[in-house]
Design brief:
Blueprint (H helix, E strand, L loop, with lengths): L2 H6 L7 H19 L4 H8 L3 H25 L5 H20 L3 H28 L6 H29 L3 H21 L11 H7 L3 H22 L1 H9 L6 H23 L3 H21 L4 H29 L4 H27 L7 H22 L1
Helix pairs in contact: 2-6, 2-7, 2-8, 3-4, 4-6, 4-15, 5-6, 5-8, 6-7, 6-15, 7-8, 7-12, 7-14, 10-13, 10-14, 10-15, 10-16, 12-14, 13-14, 13-16, 14-15
């Protein structure tokens, strides 16, 4: 058994390595949410259309969706710390190269940085559970995922602010600096963990055939799309329907982030023993709150607490999802964990498709939350089926 597990068996506190992984995910994940805020500046500076600038977002997303499983396979026999540091350094290097090159090179480096980011995310999740006892797997996974939550509600907006004060590259240079810093911290603070058993690609691939595992992936895609579709269009709802002033919109969006931290904390503690309780609470909560957000969108006094509660419901799910994945794929978690990352990103990537279909029919912007409610409801029978099995 890993000596780090023995050291922390007698305490309820998580090892510092788990928090280092969360910080690293925050540093790298900020690049995912930063570009949307500076797209017009990117298009102007690189002399491309806004649609071409938007392709940079798509390139990163494709890298994340496609990158996790291959990286997991390639690094299966590497020490986990080596795999993590390699992914971080590749990520920092590709982001930096893209900042000093033309549009075509930037497009390629965005895809490559997405690959590296997905690889880090996948190995980080597996490393986190190797640092704790099995009864705290979901909690440790939740803390690591919280880094992505901070990136979404703080890293992206702060990076956009920095870019607006300098030029659009300023926020990305900050991402590079933070990633290098987190790489050094992980090199010094993470133990040299290895797999508890000899890694086997055949065993990993055999595990991936489990229908129960793909059921959890389906829940992941559906629930992620369910809450992200409301969050992605929340600013538009606040401005056009709720009539919140521009000054207060970031504060309301930040409430979603505060709720996310509460949800991760609660979900992490529930999920180790009752993962399906957390999954059902999250899915039902997203469905109900999405309906309330749609029907009460013109009442600011109702929208504000709804946004906070939606953040809780959304992120109660995440530790439970990882808990189920690592329970089903306990003997071969690396590829299964990597595919979980891809499932999360696929859910995020599908939101513009669903929203575009509705808005293209001239539906009101609040209709996106109806779509979110339906997606969450579709996930509930899959959760109940997994619990029955």
């Amino acid at each position: 058994m890993d000596t780090n597990v023995i050291t922390h068996r007698r305490t309820n506190r998580l090892p510092v390595g788990v928090y280092l992984l969360a910080f690293s995910l925050f540093a790298m994940g900020s690049a995912e949410f930063l570009l949307a805020g500076v797209l017009p500046s990117v298009a102007t500076d690189l002399d491309v259309s806004l649609a071409s600038a938007g392709a940079l977002i798509t390139a990163f997303a494709l890298g994340v969706v496609l990158g996790g499983p291959p990286f997991a396979v390639l690094s299966l026999r590497w020490p986990r710390r080596t795999a993590l540091l390699t992914a971080q350094l590749v990520f920092a290097a590709t982001v930096a190269v893209g900042l000093v090159a033309d549009y075509q090179v930037l497009l390629i480096t965005r895809f490559l940085s997405g690959l590296a980011y997905a690889g880090f995310f996948a190995v980080a999740a597996v490393t986190a559970i190797s640092l704790v006892t099995p009864d705290r797997n979901a909690r440790a996974s939740g803390v690591v995922v919280s880094g992505l939550g901070v990136a979404m509600v703080a890293g992206g907006p702060l990076g956009t602010l920095l870019s607006n004060l300098t030029d659009w590259r300023g926020g990305f240079w900050a991402v590079v600096a933070l990633t290098v810093l987190s790489t050094i911290a992980c090199a010094l603070g993470l133990p040299a963990t290895t797999a508890t058993a000899e890694p086997s690609l055949r065993r990993e691939l055999t595990t991936m055939r489990s229908p129960r595992l793909w059921g959890v992936y389906a829940v992941t895609i559906l629930t992620t799309a369910a809450y992200m579709i409301s969050f992605n269009y929340l600013a538009a709802v606040l401005a056009d329907v709720t009539h919140v002033t521009d000054l207060w919109i970031p504060a309301v969006l930040a409430l979603f982030g505060v709720g996310a931290f509460v949800g991760l904390s609660v979900g992490g503690r529930i999920s180790d023993r009752r993962p399906h309780h957390a999954l059902l609470i999250g899915a039902i909560g997203i469905a109900v709150l999405s309906v309330l957000l749609t029907t009460l969108a013109d009442h600011a006094s109702a929208v504000v607490p709804i946004v906070f509660l939606l953040g809780i419901a959304a992120f109660v799910l995440n530790p439970a999802i990882y808990g189920r994945v690592f329970a089903i794929a306990a003997d071969a978690p690396t590829l299964a964990g990597a595919t979980t990352v891809s499932a999360f990103q696929l859910g995020i990537s599908l939101t513009p498709v669903f929203a575009g279909a509705a808005l293209g029919l001239d539906a009101p912007v609040t209709s996106v939350s109806w779509i979110g409610a339906v997606l969450a409801l579709v996930a509930i029978p899959l959760i109940l089926l997994d619990r029955r099995k």
